[in-house]
């Protein structure tokens, strides 16, 4: 799998051409984004694609312009004057203060203390402002890790507006009075892993590792666990452009990427929890992002929800997601793949249903699986842009368990 | 203290595989947000004070292999999030098969002390009652000048719940404003070693037994723990 070190070519002369190529693609992308922003109405579908595809939105300057569109926040509607925050009679103040004071690692290493402390004050204000204005939202430890990312990229004024929108949509479930819905979203993790690699799934089940190792990943959008800010904002580009459940797909992809380590680990809760919660810092982010997109298209939440849920349907962030303009990105490729998949299925009706296809039968099914994956990747390319192309080769080695039942 | 130190063999790495029949003591560390649970567990497992700790989200895990009477024992510490919302629906998975509980409060934060009955109740709801060894740790003793919880009040509380009390500081002793020469780090070590001794003396582990015999440790170490100013209800 050619997934390592995709970004560190600078030191190697062999990568000179790659570097040139990357530079020209970058230029092209910048131009495309500028173009999408300049048309009326702004082409949000293109902006979503840009945010997902290789390299994401490239710079914080671009993010300032594009993130509001991804969240459907009208820049002109944001008031110039930020509301004053009354800290004295605030039920959340103590907890927020405690967490923000301890969040030193979220700030750039070289930043002077004075500047950092100023930002920490702003961070507290943003959080309290959003919470006061939206009494239905409840602060959770980790929320500050998300807000700090927005603050560092956007500044206090813009961050306040975007964080508020994010909190009432993508993060809504995490901000319930209890964490029941958060737990429910974590329940998607194991079914996704099962679809792709039943062996890893079974091993984790046997170890009874649970899913709490992924809790901080999910509710901070990985902001709590990744030390390089560039990686964090790259992921935020991706998540802001996608369905609110995408972070759980990304979590699954990380576990799957570490397949060998997982299977080599002692099969007990402590060892596995320890292994999985220590996230590697050198992940091949671009590859994993396109894999997560691929998995989302192949196994959309609707297909997994039966397994993920034992409880009643609730209003979740995923159901409020229709507020956003997601027409082109999420839905079209999904249905395209389904259509193709249906075609595939008709072609190979003689094939054994994968549900029954255990060890031996899997071998027979595999060629079909490979064909499917390639088609799927083409379908996803519509949504994920160039990044998906880069994964065609590795996707073949990574053929998921084919299960026709999931696409009726 | 030095003799105790040298008799220990520990590792913080999961990489060094202990022999297959190594016993595992699973200890859960609970208490309010910001009382220093992460610092205490880090202190014990890595033998130093962490430079920057952040809010724990969910559950963190640390472990250390110690040796008691020639037996290697793996001490697993489960460091939990302090915010209430996490314990309600998230953490219960980690209460299973727990051998001992460490309740932590911050001596400079009276509210964290007042929360203790709720934490004890929480454990009861997870079927962890008095039969499971429990200890009470008052942290941040280096800030004695800002104390809001007196040793007497804490001792009284500990007695009423049949727990030994320890007061300690997980912080680097150079920051302590106590005038003793002693190093607080050893106390954190000693606290968890006390629990480990206690657990080792139980056969089988879940044997019902009041949590009152730190005698094993004291016998071995004489009265040394007196020096650092921490106390337990057997002292």
Automatic annotation (TrEMBL), chain A:
Q: Which GO terms describe its cellular component?
A: membrane
Localization: Membrane
Q: Which residues cross the membrane?
A: 238-257, 372-392
Which intervals hold domain Rab-GAP TBC?
57-243
Q: Please give one Pfam family short name.
A: RabGAP-TBC
Q: Answer whether the UniProt record assigns the keyword tRNA processing to this protein.
A: no
Basic and acidic residues composition bias: which ranges?
18-32, 305-316
Task: Output the superkingdom of the source species.
Answer: Eukaryota
**Gene Ontology molecular function terms on file:** GTPase activator activity
Region of interest: Disordered: 1-32, 305-361
Q: How does it sit in the membrane?
A: Multi-pass membrane protein
GO terms of biological process kind: Golgi organization; vesicle organization
What are the entry keywords? GTPase activation, Membrane, Transmembrane, Transmembrane helix
Biased composition of type Polar residues is found at 317-333
Record-given protein name = TBC1 domain family member 20
From TrEMBL, chain B:
CC per GO annotation:
Golgi apparatus
Pfam families hit by this protein: Ras (PF00071)
Task: Report the PANTHER family cross-referenced here.
Answer: PTHR47978
Q: Where in the cell is it found?
A: Endomembrane system
Matches recorded under SUPFAM superfamilies? P-loop containing nucleoside triphosphate hydrolases (SSF52540)
User: Which reaction is this enzyme known to catalyze?
Assistant: GTP + H2O = GDP + phosphate + H(+)
Q: Which GO terms describe its molecular function?
A: G protein activity; GTP binding
Q: What is this protein called?
A: small monomeric GTPase
Q: Species name for this entry?
A: Coilia grayii (Gray's grenadier anchovy)
Q: What is the lineage of its organism?
A: Eukaryota, Metazoa, Chordata, Craniata, Vertebrata
Q: Which UniProt keywords apply?
A: GTP-binding, Hydrolase, Lipoprotein, Membrane, Methylation, Nucleotide-binding, Prenylation
Q: NCBIfam families attached here? A: small_GTP
Query: Membrane topology per the record?
Result: Lipid-anchor
